Amino acid sequence: MPGQASATSQAPSMASPEAQETGAAPAEGSQVDAGAEKMGAPASPHQRSWLVRHFSLLLRRDRQAQKAGQLFSGLLALNVVFLGGAFICSMIFNNVAITLGDVWILLAVLKALSLLWLLYFAARTTRHPRAVLYHDPHAGPIWVRGSLVLFGSCTICLNIFRVGYDVSHIHCKSQLELIFPVIEMIFIGVQTWVLWKHCKDCVQIQTNFTRCGLMLTLATDLLLWVLAVTNDSMHREIEAELNALMENFFGNDTNTCLCLNATVCEVFQRGYLMLYPFSTEYCLICCAVLFVMWKNVSRRLAPHTDTHPGTPPFRLHGAIFGPLLGLLALVAGVCVFVLFQIEASGPTIARQYFTLYYAFYIAVLPSMSLACLAGTAIHGLEERELDTLKNPTRSLDVVLLMGAALGQMGIAYFSIVAIVATRPHELLNRLILAYSLLLILQHIAQNLFIIEGLHRRPLWETASEHPAGKREAEPPRRGSLLELGQDLRRASLAYIHSYSHLNWKRRALKEISLFLILCNITLWMMPAFGIHPEFENGLEQEFYGYRTWFTIVNFGLPLGVFYRMHSVGGLVEVYLEA
């Protein structure tokens, strides 16, 4: 009886701290019973069932609260997106009732609310000692945070050019139009700082309010992206001003609002048009980071996963052919980019430059597809285990990779239809047709290679767990330091022997990954910094109409740029884990 009483009094003290950890209830109940049996007092069935019921109830309530918070915040974001989408669609189809100014006012209110919440979130999590107890090691890698800063800076510069352009037309424009770009610059600056600092946080306080704030900010960024995709008012205004200048040159008067200083306005116009795709890129990256933060709210990690498990540094490891071929593609892409940009600075672009651009892609895309297929085949020959642990960051990476691929693939399919229906026998149209088909195949092959690589367990992780697993299987015993060193040496030799026959596969995967990294950087650089032959060759624009093709290109090109950048991050992980 004394032993049983001590076991009974000790069970709640052991259960109370463990009840805070998600998913640990049944295991802890069995540990309490096992401890009672070791102390000589068998646990009664009534006591065991009470502990199980108690822990199960706590877990069930915790999960229900999490699901309720996620559902409510998700519905909040959905309603905000539907409201903003209704405003934007009304502006497009009925410009008299709902104007662009009305949409700007709605977005200004949403940006102000999101800005207040971001400042409160940063202050609250910094001051509260138990606000963030865990950090997700997979969230917010350096390339994502670097992209946030890069594209955020470019978006701020875009709004500076917009303000300069509006100031140069202040004699025929409302001064209220200057307020909206200023609000957006403040919002982008604060959001970039908060996401850089807190993108890895697993917030444990005010979880429902945090979820709602994250979803409100995500909905605001999503609406900014939708407006940037569909709104061509600035482009039409610049085009109308250029036409008016030509009319004035020939002696015809127009009512178009003209700039007071033509040279300064040309700088603002070119800067705005060049940086316009970066605003859509920034909104997409912010949405991805905010979604990961939303999934990590109230998430609890095991102690050993709170720190990143010994990721090896980025080294070439003797890779030669992959970097050389990738550098060759990069140099060729830079040459094509410079030639095309010089030609694009003139009034028209000669057809031979379009031919050069599409010929470069036709040479690079098949080699990338073959490399991806070879890498996927090597993944199938490997003996590495699949990583089946639940990882919201990796799941989001896969979803973003598949979703972003739809941008360029959608443009390619629209181009195929336009070419086949009009003039498929011309040389340039044949090149565009071949380019579109190869682009679709390359996206499919590369997605297969990256997703297969991300779901393989890293060799360095297996190496760190392999000896530990052996030690856990053996009964605990005390030995000298010499015996411990001999055990570690045997484990190291066994690991080297197990994976020595994979050296050629690992080297091939590293060569392929490096080649694809450099090729994706090349294909990211060309559309990101101003090469848009899909819009400038005139074929699809003539077939679909200006407004329709503008929306298709503005929807697909930012997703294509985001896909290339996201692929580089995934390929770096595949390279490090090979």
UniProtKB/TrEMBL annotation:
InterPro entries per the UniProt record, alphabetical: Otopetrin
A Pfam short name = Otopetrin
Q: Where in the cell is it found?
A: Cell membrane
Feature: compositional bias, Polar residues = 1-13
State the GO CC annotations: plasma membrane
| Start and end residues of each stretch annotated as Disordered | 1-45
Q: How does the entry describe its membrane topology?
A: Multi-pass membrane protein
* UniProt entry keywords in alphabetical sequence: Cell membrane, Hydrogen ion transport, Ion channel, Ion transport, Membrane, Transmembrane, Transmembrane helix, Transport
Q: Which residues form a coiled coil?
A: none
Instruction: Give TM regions.
Output: 71-97, 103-122, 142-163, 178-196, 274-294, 314-342, 354-378, 398-420, 512-532, 544-563
Q: Name one GO molecular function term.
A: proton channel activity
Family classification: Belongs to the otopetrin family.
What highest taxon heads this organism's lineage? Eukaryota
* Protein name stated in the entry: Otopetrin-3
